[in-house]
Amino acid sequence: MNPINHVAIIMDGNGRWGLREKKSRNAGHRAGLKPIENIIEESLKNKIKFLTLFVFSTENWKRPQKEIKYLFNLLESFLKDKTNILDKNKIKLKVIGNKKNFSVSLKNILNKTEFKTKDNIKLQVNLALNYGSKDELIFAINKINKKQIPINKKNISKNLYTAEIPDPDILIRTGNTNRLSNFLLWQLAYTEIFFEKKLWPDFTKKDFNKILNRFKKIKRNFGKI
Ligand code: IPE
Ligand code: IPE
Ligand code: MG
């Protein structure tokens, strides 16, 4: 049985869910919070060590200002509400992506949460925020050049946002869309990918466990036979 160390998730389909259920995309973003809590709980139960959630991509700035604002307000209040609970459950929170363009208040709460939870070792939750894999790679290569060290696989991995994090074993994308949308292109080289038809707000603990069980039975070759 394959061990599960790291699960990454592209939480897609909030907008369509919101339009379908409440005639508002933003209602879908709000409804997307509950499955995040459920999947964190289930990850703890399954002794998963890393959970990486795609929250906002470098391409998502192309959305209407009102939706972007709603998303970041939601994130801010979610963190304000949940930091203590995360900490109590020995969860470490880390941001992957570029915080530079965020509001001062969002940056503050992100930094505060990261600092408060930095020594927790039960589960690390990585929030991919203003994250784009191509930007990340360019950023890493520039860092390598500055350090005047060779460009090789080890040095690239060590200079990505995910430097200390093993590559994902499992990638899940909800929302009935079969693409990677600039997520973890380097790190997913040998990841098992599961495309899920359900929209993110409909994704349950049971759906998650089904995928974990399917994964456990896969023969992972890594090029061998
Ligand atoms: C994913 O849901 C959440 C973010 C990208 C922030 P979407 O908002 O992309 O939902 P759909 O794909 O439009 O339904
Ligand atoms: C990917 O979803 C980004 C997140 C889930 C945060 P998108 O909905 O932005 O992806 P595309 O644009 O449909 O590929
Ligand atoms: Mg989408």
Features:
single chain; 225 residues; alpha/beta; 6-stranded parallel β-sheet; 8 helices; 44% helix; 16% strand; globular; binds 3-methylbut-3-enyl trihydrogen diphosphate; binds magnesium ion
Number of helices: 8
Strand order in space, largest sheet: 3-4-2-1-5-6
Shape: globular
The residue-averaged pLDDT reads 98
Low-confidence stretches: none
Task: Supply the helix-strand structural class.
Answer: alpha/beta
What is the N-to-C order of secondary-structure elements (H for helix, E for strand)? EHHHEHEHEHHEEH
- Separation of termini? 17 Å
Give the oligomer, counting copies of the same chain as homo and different chains as hetero: single chain
Bound molecules: 3-methylbut-3-enyl trihydrogen diphosphate, magnesium ion
Largest sheet: 6 strands, parallel
Tell me the total number of β-strands: 6
